[in-house]
């Protein structure tokens, strides 16, 4: 079973820690605030009060035995950078760090973060896309150019196969799955057809997806 640690129990860190625990993983939650530690104690495997910038304290917690450590420290940019540096120095296999902005993210990458996430920025992008796209249910940024989206099919797609629609040639979109009620068809073939109320999960360039939404 994978073991996780989450450092920084603000709204984001708390949400990550509780969600992982509810998914069945072992989760160690860490914060310098005794109130935050006490508040989450019953919703994770272990909750510990510790200073994220204290190298001795972090090493004493045995975080190098965790598969992934999430540095979810909020406004204290210096603390998040120091914690990331200490964790990588201690041999943690994978450190995922939350960044406030691009500059913060670049520094985190420089000191060894294996993955940098921008929850506020990414959520803003997803909300904006959902507001302007009536047929897009969800939207995940993979990179500056590529995205994955859940799209409600237009009426013109009903009863047609993916081969007939040829979305890859027409729009540069790859259909990863079809969601039909409670059923999910993974890696559908050209022979798979679309029905009323089907949802397709597509991968493609953002501008091509926007063109597809406008066209359809």
Biggest sheet: strand arrangement: 3-2-1-4-5-6
Into which percentage range does the β-strand content fall? 25-35%
What general outline do the C-alpha atoms trace? Answer: elongated
The H-and-E topology, N to C, reads as EHEHEHEHEHEHEEHHEEEH
Class from secondary-structure proportions: alpha/beta
| Average predicted confidence as pLDDT | 87
Uncertain runs = none
Treating each run of at least 4 consecutive H or I residues as one helix, how many helices? 9
Question: Explain this structure to me?
Answer:
With 216 residues, the chain is of the alpha/beta class. It has nine helices and eleven strands. A six-stranded parallel β-sheet has the order 3-2-1-4-5-6, with helices on both faces. The N and C termini lie far apart (44 Å).
Tag the structure with descriptive keywords.
216 residues, alpha/beta, 6-stranded parallel sheet, 5-stranded antiparallel sheet, 9 helices, 11 strands, elongated
Q: Layout of SSEs?
A:
Layout (H helix, E strand, L loop, with lengths): L2 E5 L3 H12 L3 E6 L2 H7 L5 E4 L5 H6 L7 E4 L5 H13 L5 E4 L3 H9 L4 E3 L1 H14 L3 E6 L4 E7 L9 H4 L1 H5 L2 E7 L2 E4 L12 E7 H10 L1
Parallel strand pairs: 1-2, 1-4, 2-3, 4-5, 5-6
Antiparallel strand pairs: 7-8, 8-11, 9-10, 9-11
Give a brief rundown of this model.
The protein has helices at 11-22, 34-40, 55-60, 77-89, 102-110, 119-132, 162-165, 167-171, 206-215; strands spanning 3-7, 26-31, 46-49, 68-71, 95-98, 115-117, 136-141, 146-152, 174-180, 183-186, 199-205. The protein is of the alpha/beta class and 216 residues long.
């Amino acid at each position: 079973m994978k073991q996780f640690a989450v450092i920084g129990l603000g709204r984001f860190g708390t949400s990550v820690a509780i969600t992982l625990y509810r998914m069945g993983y072992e989760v160690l939650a860490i914060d310098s605030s005794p109130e935050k530690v006490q508040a989450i104690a019953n919703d994770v495997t272990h909750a510990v009060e510790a200073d994220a910038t204290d190298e001795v304290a972090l090493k004493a917690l045995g975080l190098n035995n965790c598969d992934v450590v999430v540095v979810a420290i909020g406004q204290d940019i210096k603390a998040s950078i120091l914690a990331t540096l200490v964790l990588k120095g201690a041999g943690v296999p994978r450190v995922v760090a939350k960044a406030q902005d691009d500059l913060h993210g670049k520094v985190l990458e420089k000191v060894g973060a294996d993955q940098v996430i921008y929850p506020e920025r990414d959520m803003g992008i997803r909300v904006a896309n959902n507001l302007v796209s009536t047929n897009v249910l969800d939207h995940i940024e993979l990179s500056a150019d590529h995205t994955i989206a859940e799209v409600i099919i237009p009426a013109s797609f009903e009863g047609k196969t993916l081969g007939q629609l040829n979305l890859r040639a027409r729009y540069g979109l790859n259909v990863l799955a079809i969601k039909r009620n409670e059923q999910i068809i993974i890696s559908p073939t050209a022979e798979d057809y679309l029905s009323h109320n089907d949802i397709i999960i597509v991968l493609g360039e953002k501008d091509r997806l926007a063109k597809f939404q406008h066209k359809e």
